[in-house]
Amino acid sequence: MDIEELGEFGLIEQIKESFKCRDHLLAIGIGDDTAALNVPGDKATLITTDLLLEGVHFDLELNSAYYLGKKSLSVNLSDIAAMGGTPRYFLLSLGIPRRYPVESLREFFRGLKELSLNYRVKLIGGDTSASTGKLMISVTVLGEAPRGQVVRRTGAEVGDQIFVTGTLGDSLLGLYILRNGINPTRSLRKLPRVVRKHLDPQPRIKEGKLIAGKGLATAMIDLSDGLLADLGHLTRDVGLGAKLWREKLPLSNYYRRNILSFEQDKWKLALTGGEDYELLFTVSRAKVKQLRHLSSRFDCRLTRIGEVVEGSEDITVVDKNDKPCKINYLTGYDHFRARFAS
Fold first, then answer.
1. Is residue 40 domain-shared with residue 60, that is, in the same domain?
2. Which of 210, 237, 231 is nearest to 282 (CA)?
3. Residue 64: which residues within 8 A CB-CB, separation 6 or more?
4. What is the extent of the structural domain holding 91?
């Protein structure tokens, strides 16, 4: 068996099995959006890390260094948001090709600093190294959350309603548009909204904290690998299934107007497109009204898109007549089986 056959999530399971950790301070280990440590005091420490590789996660011809700096941090902040936490500190490690322009590095740090100031998260260390090939970026974020309010992936129950923030599929559509010749060095305000979402995703820190603070979510995850793939972590991992109402999926106006220029199936990117970095979560029916009231404080829209069901561990997408839709394409992003990259 090679790594492509094993797949990203199979690899994670093997690592998890080989490195079982039993420690009185460890509250959450491998398999969630962040690890969590129960340090002294009333708050848990959250820790998450992401690796971004040129040619896999980004193309330097399609990303300005400024936006790359912002995105390198924002994807980690999104993990903290999914746990209902507040980011505090981060570490940065870079593998830099010897001929990489210093001017581009300055732009990278300008974007990184701007985002860090926006979210009040401080750089406290890291490492640098020469790279023999591509640019490599690794960011580790440390955050915190009240110990009893950390939201995990594994709390969904039958009957829970499935909600998502923002709109779906925009980031991958933005990538398609970049590949068709839009210059990413243009002012962000002049770029189509979906391109902005791909280059400069907004981690839903505020929304995650509000949801967790009121104890509304039974499970939550950020959308990095696509709706179907990430929903599977909330349902299949606890032996349940889900029904998604296709016509309820939130699509931006730009997406609706332009998607058929790129895909025959207008729902494909909404169901499978990665890097939207919205929050996907489940809520008991009894708390839906409370969530609706709370959502007036969100900076984005909130949409109920389905429900958790008993049994098969399958995710069924149904049309407006409640009939199952045939899904004949990849259901999400897997690094070792990838057929599209972002």
1. yes
2. 231
3. 107, 184, 185, 199
4. 3-149
Dist CA 119 CA 113 (whole Å): 10
pLDDT of the residue at 188? 59
pLDDT along the chain (342 residues), means of 10: 59 60 63 66 90 90 93 97 96 94 95 97 93 93 93 94 98 92 64 90 97 97 95 91 97 94 94 96 97 96 97 87 84 49 38
Residue 230 · residue 281 · CB < 8 Å: no
139 and 182 share a domain?
no
In a domain, 326, yes or no: no
Residue whose tokens read 């992401």: 50
Number of C-beta neighbours around residue 175 at 10 A: 26
CATH number at residue 144: 3.30.1330.10
Residue 197 burial (CB count, 10 A): 27
d(CA 38, CA 28): 9
Question: How many separate domains does the chain show?
Answer: 2
User: What's the whole-model pTM score?
Assistant: 0.86
